[in-house]
Amino acid sequence: MEKIEDYIELVKETIKFLREGKVVVCSIDKNNKPNLMTIGWGSIGIVWGEPVFIIFIRPSRYTYELIEQTGDFTLNVFDDKYKDIINYCGTVSGRNIDKFKETKLTPLKSKYVRSPLVEESIISYECKVIGKIDIKPEMIAKEIKEKIYKSGDYHRLYIGKILTCYKKTILDI
Amino acid sequence: MEKIEDYIELVKETIKFLREGKVVVCSIDKNNKPNLMTIGWGSIGIVWGEPVFIIFIRPSRYTYELIEQTGDFTLNVFDDKYKDIINYCGTVSGRNIDKFKETKLTPLKSKYVRSPLVEESIISYECKVIGKIDIKPEMIAKEIKEKIYKSGDYHRLYIGKILTCYKKTILDI
Question: What percent of chain A shows pLDDT beyond 90?
Fold first, then answer.
């Protein structure tokens, strides 16, 4: 993985893969067991003068528990080869399953955060939470509420400051 | 201005200009008088399955009042030629000043929203608010609170669904 100095070089590709549901959040528990969760929503930009990746996590998720404990996460973008694995990471809970073991993906030590990167990803980001914001029912369009929040469980936004990011180069493949 | 089918084609350039403080929010009051406000923060991505541009507006701003009334806004990206005008739009309030008149910028009828576009922009977006989220003091990192929120006035996030977007082509210049 090559370190990319400016995340702006990665935003187009990242959003493209994100809307295809090919981005996986990696977080870690207090016993240093990492977990994976596939996401299809998020946004990239600048907040409070910092480069940020904002992710949306429901309180019912195991990933929510872990990010609450550590205050950090990594984002890992996968290509089509990992389609089945990505689907799997979006459908089972890390409370009961060791997803790294099951998927045979490889955790890779991060430089700045506790949560590891995933070696097989083509793009990745290390993020530290600098703000959280909770979605409130009364502030969402009716059609969104009916479509997304039938069971409540309103998302918490994690504003993650991008500390560093990487891209796989020809040399890595 | 040429209509761009997929906003992903514009994200890199938009974030680049956004962090240089060259994006202007345009909103409109109930008497159809439009207003301009320069922003340097925001994020682009996918939320609730929709393409979105999230902007951060403080309740004290005139733009907040207008977006609360209409539920829409446009984003307009400017190049260096408009540097002075962009600075001006970030330092005076539309409560007292007609910024279109003062800057001689040209409002352009939007296709889907009430707020107009700005003809002189190089990239623009029409957005409809599908969600709002308020930042709470207790959920922000201490260093951000001290740097950004000394006077309180915590931002409201407007999650704007991107309804359409445009880019200036050689033919327009």
Answer: 96
User: Is B133–A135 a contact, with Cβ atoms under 8 angstroms apart?
Assistant: yes
pTM of the model: 0.96
Q: What is the DSSP letter of B155?
A: P
Residue in A closest to B14 by C-alpha: A45
Strands (E), chain A: 2-4, 23-28, 34-39, 42-47, 50-57, 72-77, 107-108, 117-118, 123-134, 156-167
- Here the ipTM equals 0.95
Condensed to tens digits (0 to 9), the pLDDT of residues A32-81 reads 999 999 999 999 999 999 999 999 999 999 999 999 999 999 999 999 99
| Interface test mutation site (partner A, options B47, B58, B157, max chain A beta carbons within 10 A) | B47
Q: Which two tokens stand for residue B52?
A: 């979105």
The tally of domains found in chain B comes to 1
Q: Which domain holds residue B72?
A: 2-172
Looking at the complex, does the CB of residue B11 fall below 8 Å from at least one CB of chain A? yes
Residue B172 above 80 pLDDT? no
Q: Which amino acid does the sequence have at B128?
A: K
Q: Do B140 and A130 touch (CB under 8 A)?
A: yes
- How far apart are the CA of A48 and the nearest CA of chain B, in angstroms? 7
- Per-state percent for chain A, helix, strand, coil, to nearest 5: 30, 35, 35
Mutate to test the interface with A, among B23, B43, B50, B157 (most CBs of A within 10 A): B43
CATH number of the domain that residue A121 is part of:
2.30.110.10
